[in-house]
Amino acid sequence: MIAEALKYLVELAEEAAGRAGDTDNLDDGREYFSQTREIVKPAMPSPLGFSTIRSLLAYVSAKRDGLDISSLVLHVEGPALVRLLGPLDGIYFTRRTFASAALVGGMPQPFGQYLDAEAFTIWLLSGFVQDEQTAAILRLVGNLKAEKVSTLAEDGVTQVATVRTGVVRNGEMEVKNPVELRPWRTFPELEQPASPFVLRLRDGKDGNAPTVALFASADTRWMGAAMASAARYLQACLEELGVGSVPVLE
Q1: What does each C-alpha distance from 203 to 45, 105, 139, 166 come to in angstroms?
Q2: Which residue of 24, 165, 222, 244 could cross-link 193, Cys pair, CB 3.0 to 4.6 Å?
């Protein structure tokens, strides 16, 4: 019994040794394990991660880790992701990512959820660039009372909210849709692109104040605008740092 167990362990060790150390080469130069026929993939260290574009460019301009600047490419993969890529390996058909910049953190974006006035106000103040649109919405939300939200002919565009306009009288404020807002959703170095949102009010239940919700539209043009802005910023900073030969791709 013990002898059989030892024999089994020896066989496992020999198999592992064959998988790990016994290799051969294909005609195209790729190396593979003789026993499993698996291609030996080249070792690649994990890419460096940055949270701002500026930090990524500082790494590029420092020319650390033996980087060949002439062979690098900066790829803007999305509104919040830029990768520094090396040349394509013609044998293994891989492309190494040396470093990347990705937007981190950020608060939850409760789009499509009806919130009370306080929670909605905090979200609007902390999660969006402040402008005339946000100011108008804040005035509306700040004046909502525990009164019924009256609605005009429901065409999906206009609502009328009953708000307190003075000490003794009520007034009505129209809510026009869509509203153009600029959430914080790309790198802080860039101007945040605007996109349309639908603002809706709902009657409060059991005497509570009305609730408010923002619904994101299907318009994704802001993503292209953010990526184009990132590419322009990258190109300008590369020229400023004296490494303008690195291509910037969207």
Answers
A1: 56, 33, 18, 21
A2: 222
User: 161 burial class (0-12, 13-18, 19+ CB within 10 angstroms)?
Assistant: buried
Residue 154 CB coordination number (10 Å): 8
Q: How far is it, in rounded angstroms, from Cα 158 to Cα 144?
A: 17
Instruction: Count Cβ atoms within 10 A of the Cβ of residue 218 and give its class: 0-12 exposed, 13-18 middle, 19 or more buried.
Output: exposed
Distance between CA atoms of 119 and 214, rounded to whole angstroms? 12
CA distances from 66 to 60, 71, 98, 123 (A): 11, 12, 11, 45
d(CA 115, CA 151): 19
**Residue labelled with tokens 């043009």:** 221
61-92 pLDDT, tens per residue?
888 777 788 889 999 999 999 999 988 766 66
pLDDT value of position 242: 82
CA separation (Å) from 125 to 120, 122, 129, 134, 185?
Answer: 9, 5, 8, 8, 14
**Distance in angstroms (rounded) separating the CA atoms of residues 115 and 123:** 10
Give yes or no for a cis peptide into 178 (omega within 30° of 0): yes
**DSSP string of 42-74?**
PP-PPPEEESSHHHHHHHHHHT-TT--GGG-EE
SS3 122: helix
Given a contact cutoff of 8 angstroms between Cβ atoms, the answer to whether 30 and 39 are in contact is yes
